[in-house]
Design brief:
4 helices; globular; two-stranded antiparallel sheet; 9% strand; Recombinase NinG; Phage_lambda_NinG
C-alpha cells in the first residue's frame, strides 16, 4: 500500500526519485519513522510509514532526522508530534 501511495513523491529522507520495479522487493522500501523495535504498535500504521529509497532505509539507518524533516514538509509538525507522542499499544486479534 505505502509503495503505491508514495509512488512519485520521492524518498521521504533524501528526495531521490522512487522507481517501482517488478523485481523482488521492489525498487524502494516502506520505511518507518518510528522503528518497529521501539514502537511495535505503529508497525502497520500508515502514518508511520513512507516510501524510502533502499540506500536511506537499509544503509543509512533510516535517516531519522531527514525522515522527520520530510514528514514535516509533507504533513506538518503537528502530525509528526502526534506520531512521536503515540505510546498506546494496539492489539491486533
Amino acid at each position: 500500500y505505502v509503495r503505491l501511495r508514495d509512488r512519485g513523491l520521492g524518498c521521504i529522507s533524501c528526495g531521490s526519485f522512487l522507481v517501482l520495479e517488478n523485481a523482488i522487493g521492489g525498487g524502494y522500501d516502506c520505511g518507518h519513522f518510528r522503528s518497529v523495535g521501539s514502537a511495535p504498535h505503529l508497525r502497520f500504521d500508515p502514518r508511520n510509514a513512507a516510501g524510502q529509497c533502499k540506500q536511506c532505509n537499509r544503509y543509512g539507518a533510516g535517516m531519522v532526522v531527514e525522515y522527520r524533516k520530510g514528514l514535516i514538509d509533507r504533513h506538518g509538525v503537528e502530525f509528526v508530534e502526534l506520531l512521536e507522542s503515540d505510546q498506546s499499544p494496539k492489539h491486533y486479534t
